[in-house]
Amino acid sequence: MYAIYETEAFILESSGRREADRIFSLYTEEFGMIRASAIAVRKMQSKLRSHLTDFSLVSVSLVRGKETWRITSARRVIDAPRHLIQPLLLIKRLVHGEMAQPKLFSLLRDSYEKKMPETFTVINILKELGYVDRNVSHDHTTKKDAVAIINKAIHESQL
Q1: Hey, CA dihedral for 42, 68, 30, 7, is it positive or negative?
Q2: pLDDT tens digits for the chain (159 residues)?
Q3: Where are the domains of the chain?
């Protein structure tokens, strides 16, 4: 008997697999970055199809199989606002493997709910992951300075 885990997840990417399946890159609070499959989700009659869209926040039920995670149910919580697509792509680029980072997940969730500016979210992501000094305050920098801080951190990380 497999355990079912219920969690919220940001869908960072999806790709087709076989005729009707999809593989999703999910960022969760409890597990970090995981890849999970959804069976027959590309079929028109699939109940999951409308809930599993890229860059959205979803509530999912997951089962851990021998080799991969599987999505058994999903419900969309929040659609993807445009100002958070780049921060989510940055998460996909910088975070690897299953490792819980509840503070980073909370930061992303707050950015969704409070519609925080993209630069503010990105600087805080980089701070949380150790790419920017924690003493850097976004509150007292201009947008131009914030972009310079972000670009310097990404350049120095060689990403």
Answers
A1: positive
A2: 678 999 999 999 887 777 777 889 999 999 999 999 887 766 666 676 667 888 999 999 999 988 889 988 889 888 878 888 999 999 998 898 888 899 999 999 888 888 888 888 998 999 998 888 877 766 656 778 888 888 888 888 776
A3: 4-78, 82-156
Contact 25, 35 (CB under 8 A): yes
Structure tokens at 69: 């995670």
Please list the residues that pair with 148 across neighbouring strands: none
Cβ neighbours of residue 19 closer than 8 Å, sequence gap 6 or more: 42
Orientation angle between helical segments 85-94 and 118-128, nearest 10 degrees: 20
Q: Which fold, 4-78?
A: OB fold (Dihydrolipoamide Acetyltransferase, E2P) (2.40.50)
| Cβ-proximal residues to 15 (8 Å cutoff; 6+ apart), any chain | 22, 23
Phi, psi of 32, deg, nearest 5: 75, -140
- Which residues does 65 contact at the CB level (< 8 Å), separation at least 6? 2
Strand 57-64 relative to strand 32-38, pairing: unpaired
